[in-house]
Amino acid sequence: MTSFESLTSTQKIRATLHRDVQAICTETCHFLGLEITKPAMEIVAELLYKKLSVYGTDLEAFAKHAKRSTINSDDVKLLVRRSPSLKNHLNTLVPNTNTPKEKRRKTEAGKVSISPASEPKEPLNLGAKKTVIQTPRQKDPETSTSKDKIPKARDEETKEKETSSKLIEKKRTLDDESKNMVIDEMIDLTID
User: Superkingdom of the source (predicted)?
Assistant: First the structure.
């Protein structure tokens, strides 16, 4: 046998994981009155090692996508987003730290302005610019003013506001329901 100190860091991690999985399997099987073979414990340890390697890679990708070099709790919450019970458990441990960020948008003359996320993405053009609209089947172009389109834009804007207020209200009711839920000690750790 080789000395633990002479192993590479990957081998040390794998050996430690095998030892811990063996201890957990032994204790759990003793508690449940079951028996488990050593090859079965080794398979569980290898599966766990491979799954944790994938999780590590995913967490690195999430942090890199957010242009960060540090993995934080938001990355972990993103990793477990498909497991509602685990996600709820993590949310109780670490409350949401998401704050609305300001969005950058381009304005005239190449200048960049910063606006809150709640503003509409494109400003309404209230001027009376004339535009030429020509469809493939038309021979003569049709001229129209942008003032003709303003009522339609306002109607769409009010519909968007109504829809977003309904979604916000629905989210609030779901949040209230989830706060009143009783969570068992058992947590579903399966992630699809």
Answer: Eukaryota
